[in-house]
Specification:
The complex is a heterodimer of chains A (about 325) and B (about 800).
Chain A: E1 17-18, E2 21-22, E3 24-25, H1 33-37, H2 43-56, H3 61-73, E4 75-78, H4 86-97, H5 102-108, E5 119-123, H6 127-133, E6 141-144, H7 155-167, E7 172-176, H8 179-183, H9 187-201, E8 205-209, H10 212-215, H11 218-230, E9 235-237, H12 249-266, E10 268-269, E11 271-273, H13 281-294, E12 307-309, H14 312-325
Parallel strand pairs in A: 3-10, 4-5, 4-12, 5-6, 6-7, 7-8, 8-9, 9-11
Antiparallel strand pairs in A: 1-2
Helix pairs in contact in A: 2-12, 3-13, 3-14, 7-9, 9-11, 11-12, 12-13
Chain B: H1 3-9, H2 20-28, E1 32-33, E2 35-37, E3 40-42, E4 49-53, E5 60-65, H3 69-88, H4 91-107, H5 109-120, H6 124-152, E6 156-158, E7 161-165, H7 171-184, E8 188-192, H8 199-211, E9 218-220, H9 225-232, E10 239-243, H10 246-255, E11 262-266, E12 272-275, H11 281-292, E13 305-309, H12 310-325, H13 345-360, E14 364-366, E15 382-385, H14 392-395, E16 402-408, H15 411-418, E17 426-430, H16 434-443, E18 448-451, E19 470-471, H17 476-481, E20 484-486, H18 487-491, E21 522-524, E22 527-529, E23 536-540, E24 546-551, H19 555-567, H20 576-592, H21 594-605, H22 607-627, E25 634-636, E26 642-650, E27 653-657, H23 665-676, E28 680-684, H24 692-701, E29 710-712, H25 717-726, E30 732-735, H26 739-748, E31 755-758, H27 769-772, H28 775-780, E32 782-790
Helix pairs in contact in B: 4-6, 4-8, 5-6, 5-8, 6-7, 11-12, 19-25, 20-22, 21-22, 22-23, 25-26
Classes of the chains: A alpha/beta (about 325), B alpha/beta (about 800).
């Protein structure tokens, strides 16, 4: 069977094609250590490419407006703070349902698109709250499970947390890997851990957070990406948002290239989610351009691409208002999440 | 298309850069430009103009003055007049002008970028993010050299009036590469921008006016090839710097052969892009995008020959094709364009023709799907696989977006294929193993080597070629030296025309001298060899007495000697310490034979000179033994996280026409720096006393000097010198004889564009170690290779 995007807010599902080849959804395959060992990443060269990703492509005017809408549709609107509360989560969900003010939606002539964010992402404790708040919207709830953000609680507890999140109604689970497995080259252990998480997810989509800011080196990032994909991850995700360095373009480029190589080797598609530190509309365009250039149009669908972000939405809304009015907007003029 | 539809299509759409400022500037000049001479616009004396057009549309942009020799006269006169004014300024004062120019380039950066794109056809992304920032960087960096000139180049002075001719592929950047170091060193300049792309240079003229640069320090003459020829041939020019085709480089070398103009040439290339099986292939693909599809492939150092290890070739080609499909070709002013327009119809035609030839030669051609703009000069990115070294596309510079791919099996084969070219400008090497990468970096014959990167440029690093890619360096300390001359050299007396030697006639007097005490042979490949001619010639002493017979060398002796010298290339691979030991040993053995050599030499040059020559020779040998492991390179610091190692390497096989006046010391003063740096030598000793070779080979033979490192061929220096200068197996020729001989070797050197070093009409004093040995000699015995090594995990 071939995977088709099943976005709740874009109409015709798009076949996932890479270089003329129709891809299937990812599923677990046996761990192939050769693929992990064969990883070659030249940091300086990756940085050079990443540095020009944002300068080689520019989108202007209506195209830019369309791209910013795309960024909203691919956004996991997120709150992951110690001071989260049920009301805070409900407020976030309200913004996810209606990310743009009505006059902007009408001005852009996009009412029929029914733009919402791609998902809402919360701690396990607020899954039920979010599910309820989003009822009828079709917006999925993503839960960060597995002892987020460190992921160092006992394995059984982490697996159990996933089960409970799924039971509570989360249809997407963001898991965190044990970074030490990467440092120590314990690829079997890493694979088994992610596979166990995936089993616990059942039908829920699983995004594997690599903690790239902790992994430090791009080769570690690439190796962890390969193991996570072979273990059956639906998405690979950069960061928890809690590391000192979160999503960067070089890290993203390395992960996206791994996704491409994996697809070419296996015929299966894995999604990508950069998270943390992406705050501006301009940044969102850089990442969209990265996805389009390196993987192509299907990876601009929420089924294969998500931003983990919170404050970016406000900046996008301001930019869209500017597109409509020609005047620069102020933050306080837009409803907060 | 509505926003909702664009939301689905997710196309980039158009993102045109607005050219209105440039349009206004052009209109402000009524779209007609004169030369820039003595700080003012000057109409062409003949009143002729030519047009320059936009390659993306074919539309005429403006009319530009066609310079003739009268215009060149005026410009050179202005530069000459300005020279004392410019040189009277302190380094600091000159630095302030260069700094002002850097600032002005930054202030007007967008206008210059847009103008460059309109005139040249390159994508605005490149002119905006690469060309113009590098222009500013070049002026900043050289403002620094102007400031530090006195401290960092003590004992050096500017060459004088510099004539510069630049190409159309990086119009303003090449302008900066030429003008900034020339001015920083205290020269004044007459520069001719390329016929296709004169406009940014003319825009720069206005910046020079704005900066208050003294009139005549910078003069800009526009025109075609004839204008360039008038400039380089002008008697008022002291130094020529040319960037362009190898063909024109040859013409310039030849047409200036009879002059003492200093010359640097930055010419064509067919640079290898080597991908090992352990490379980061995705990054290598991006390297190729920056290597061959940058500036439509119209880059002298473009990585146009892809050499990929067989094991990963298909994988790399597949990745490459995918990447090529994503390249966007179109209007160069669009900010989302990767490949713009080809500069001129004739270039486009040449690219088409060469690609067709490549296909006819058996290559498989792949181009991405998609349509080219209907208007303007475009050529799609092209991958030719299955190319063999015999194919034209593997040998000739295409100067277009065309990559010729070959495969290799082993690192040794990679090196062989990489060096299987007449060019030697640049190389790009991709491997995650530093041993593999640096091993090839050391072996490849190229002036610039980029490890895991490509087309990296910076004002602090030297750029320039080996072989037929030219000589001289631009950028960094080594680039500054091209625009400077040692004061002591300027102070040397001029050579006095010597009478034609009558010594060299076959078998003259031979029959009458049955009692000759010495018959020496040629010294080739470490062996004494009879001359191929079967003739000898008599050598007479100062008192007219016959001293002995010297072999009369001919073409074949030179051929054999060059072959022996080429085969001794492993001398360069010996450690400097090992070479030093051999050279010390030469001194030791010369000391052993001091008396007899002095006695014999005395008959030719008189006892006092002989004693002095031998004593100083011993010292000189010690000097170069000492230098062997001390003439070191430097590490440049370009922006970014990498080191750039500027490494002096031997030139190869050097032909030496030894000076007549000091048969032993003069010969050794040239031969020693050459071999100390790892070169091999074919030397023609002074015809005054060629018998010295008999003494020398006995010394060499007992000193563990490997056979072939030094070859000595006696005979008529001008005749043998012609054969040496013609020989493609000789990489440099040094001639320290008459002006006629110097002109002869310069003119004859153009076959393989070997480096030429002559006394340029100066009488060197071989007896003064302060001038007759040291760095000046070692600089000529080496060429600088800049190896860029980015790092970081």
């Amino acid at each position: 069977m071939s995977l088709q995007t099943t976005s709740h807010n874009t109409k015709p599902p798009m076949p996932i094609v890479l270089n003329g080849r129709l891809l299937e959804a990812n599923r677990r395959i046996p761990l192939n250590l050769d693929w992990v060992e064969e990883v070659r990443v030249n940091t300086s060269a990756v940085e050079r490419r990443a540095a020009t990703l944002g300068t080689r492509r520019t989108v202007k005017k209506e195209n830019q407006a369309a791209w910013l809408l795309r960024a909203i549709a691919c956004m996991d609107l997120t709150t992951l703070s110690g001071d989260d509360s049920a009301e805070r989560v409900r407020r976030l969900c309200a913004k996810a349902r209606q990310p743009l003010q009505r006059h902007i939606v009408e001005g852009l002539g996009i009412a029929d698109l029914h733009i919402t964010t791609g998902a809402v992402c919360v701690y396990h404790a607020y899954v039920e709250t979010a599910v309820k708040a989003l009822e009828g919207s079709g917006i999925p709830v993503a839960a960060v499970s597995t002892g987020f953000p460190a992921g160092l609680s006992p394995l059984a507890e982490r697996v159990e947390e996933i089960r409970r999140s799924v039971e509570a109604g989360a249809s997407e689970i963001d898991i965190v890997i044990t970074r030490a497995h990467v440092f120590n080259g314990e690829w079997n252990a890493l694979y088994d851990e992610i596979a166990a998480f995936k089993d616990a997810c059942g039908a829920a989509h699983m995004k594997s957070i690599l903690g790239t800011g902790d992994l430090m080196t791009l080769r570690n990032v690439a190796r962890a990406s390969w193991v996570a994909m072979m273990a059956g991850s639906d998405f690979i995700k950069t960061s928890t948002g809690k590391e000192a360095v979160n999503a960067t373009l070089p890290v993203s480029l390395v992960m996206v290239r791994a996704i491409r190589d994996y697809a070419e080797k296996t015929g299966m598609a894995v999604g990508f989610k950069p998270a943390g530190g992406i705050k501006t509309a301009k940044q969102s365009l850089d990442w969209l351009s990265l996805m389009k250039e390196e993987l192509g149009r299907p990876w601009l669908e929420p089924s294969l691409f998500r931003f983990g972000a919170s404050s970016m939405l406000g900046d996008i809304e301001r930019q869209l208002e500017h597109y409509l009015t020609g005047r620069y907007s102020a933050t306080y003029r837009h409803p907060i999440a | 298309m509505s926003i909702a539809e664009k939301f689905q299509s997710m196309d980039y759409g158009a993102a045109p850069e607005d050219p209105k400022e440039v349009t206004a500037w052009l209109d402000g000049h009524k779209r007609r430009f004169g030369h820039f001479i003595a700080g003012k616009w000057a109409a062409p004396k003949a009143g002729e103009y030519f047009t320059t057009s936009d390659p993306s549309s074919g539309d005429v942009i403006a009319e530009v003055a066609q310079g003739n020799s009268a215009d060149v006269d005026a410009a050179v006169a202005a530069a000459r007049k300005a020279l004392p004014v410019w040189q009277a300024l302190s380094g600091h004062e000159r630095a302030r002008y260069l700094y002002a120019l850097a600032r002005l380039v930054q202030k007007h950066s967008r206008r210059l970028a847009v103008l460059e794109t309109i005139d040249n056809g390159k994508p605005i992304r490149e002119s905006r993010d690469i060309d113009i920032p590098l222009v500013a960087r070049h002026f900043y960096h050289h403002a620094g050299w102007a400031q530090l000139l006195r401290q960092e180049f003590p004992g050096y002075s500017a060459c004088g009036v510099v004539g510069q001719v630049i190409p159309w592929n990086f119009p303003l950047l090449m302008f900066a590469w030429k003008v900034a170091p020339a001015l920083a060193a205290g020269n004044t300049v007459v520069i001719k921008p390329a016929e296709y792309t004169p406009l940014t240079a003319l825009a720069f003229a206005e910046l020079a006016m704005e900066a208050g640069l003294p009139a005549g320090v910078l003069n800009i003459i526009t025109g075609d090839g004839s204008t360039g020829a008038a400039l380089v041939e002008h008697d008022g020019i002291d130094k020529i710097a040319f960037t362009g085709s190898t063909e024109v480089g040859r013409i310039i070398r030849k047409s200036t052969a009879a002059s003492h103009k200093k010359l640097s040439l930055e010419l064509g290339g067919k640079s290898p892009f080597v991908v090992f099986d352990d490379a980061d292939l995705d990054s290598a693909v991006e390297g190729l995008v920056d290597g061959i599809w940058f500036n439509q492939g119209q880059v002298c150092c473009a990585g146009s020959r892809l050499l990929v290890q067989e094991r990963v070739a298909e994988t790399l080609f597949a990745k490459l094709r995918t990447r090529m499909q994503a390249l966007r070709i179109g209007h160069p002013l669009d900010k989302s364009i990767d490949i713009g327009a080809i500069v001129a119809p004739v270039q486009l035609e040449r690219i088409r023709k060469l690609v067709d030839e490549g296909i006819a030669d058996g290559a498989t051609c792949w181009q991405p799907q998609g349509t080219l703009p209907t208007k303007g000069l475009y050529f799609p990115p092209t991958l030719l696989t299955g190319v063999h070294p015999t194919a034209t596309v593997a040998q000739e510079e295409i100067f277009g977006p065309v990559l010729a791919a070959m495969t290799f099996r082993t690192p040794a084969e990679a090196a062989e294929l990489a060096n299987n070219t007449v060019y030697g400008l640049a190389a790009s090497i991709w491997s995650e193993n530093i041993n593999v990468a640096l091993d090839l970096a050391a072996q490849v014959k190229a002036g610039v080597v980029w490890v895991n990167s490509t087309n990296q440029f910076d004002a602090a690093c030297g750029f320039g070629g080996y072989r037929e890619s030219g000589y001289g360096r631009e950028g960094g300390r080594e680039g500054m030296l091209e625009y400077l001359t040692p004061d002591w050299l300027n102070a040397l007396p001029k050579t006095i025309a010597t009478k034609k030697s009558s010594a060299v006639h076959p078998d003259d007097d031979a029959t009458a001298n049955a009692d000759i005490d010495r018959t020496v042979k040629q010294y080739i490949g470490g062996k004494q060899a009879r001359p191929d001619s079967g003739y000898s010639f008599a050598v007479h002493g100062i008192d007219g007495k016959l001293l002995g017979e010297a072999p009369l060398g001919n073409r074949k002796d030179i051929r054999n000697a060059v072959e022996a010298a080429n085969s001794a290339a492993k001398w360069a691979k010996m450690t400097a310490h090992a070479r030093a030991q051999v050279i010390y040993y030469i001194a030791e053995n010369l000391i052993q034979r001091k008396e007899e050599i002095t006695r014999r030499l005395a008959a030719a040059v008189g006892a006092p000179q002989a004693a002095s020559e031998v004593a100083l020779s011993i010292e000189r040998i010690f000097s170069y033994a000492a230098w062997t492991d001390k003439f070191e390179g430097v590490v440049h610091h370009p922006p970014g996280r990498n080191i750039t190692i500027a490494m002096p390497e031997p030139v190869g096989t050097i032909g030496i026409l030894a000076p007549e006046e000091a048969p032993l010391l003069g010969l050794l003063s040239l031969l020693l720096p050459a071999i100390a740096m790892g070169n091999t030598v074919v030397a023609v000793p002074s015809e005054k006393y060629p018998l010295i070779l008999g003494d020398l080979y006995q010394v060499f033979d007992t000193s563990d000097l490997p056979g072939g490192v030094v070859n000595l061929v006696a005979g008529k220096p001008s005749e043998l010198g012609k054969t040496l200068a013609d020989h493609d197996g000789v990489d440099a020729i040094w001639c320290f004889r008459s002006d006629e001989d110097a002109a002869m070797v310069k003119a004859a050197s153009i076959g393989n564009l070997k480096q030429v070093w002559t006394n340029e009409g100066h009488a060197y004093n071989w007896f003064d170690a302060a001038h007759a040995e040291g760095r000046w000699f070692l600089q000529h015995a080496t060429q600088v290779k800049n190896i860029w090594v980015p790092y970081g995990e």
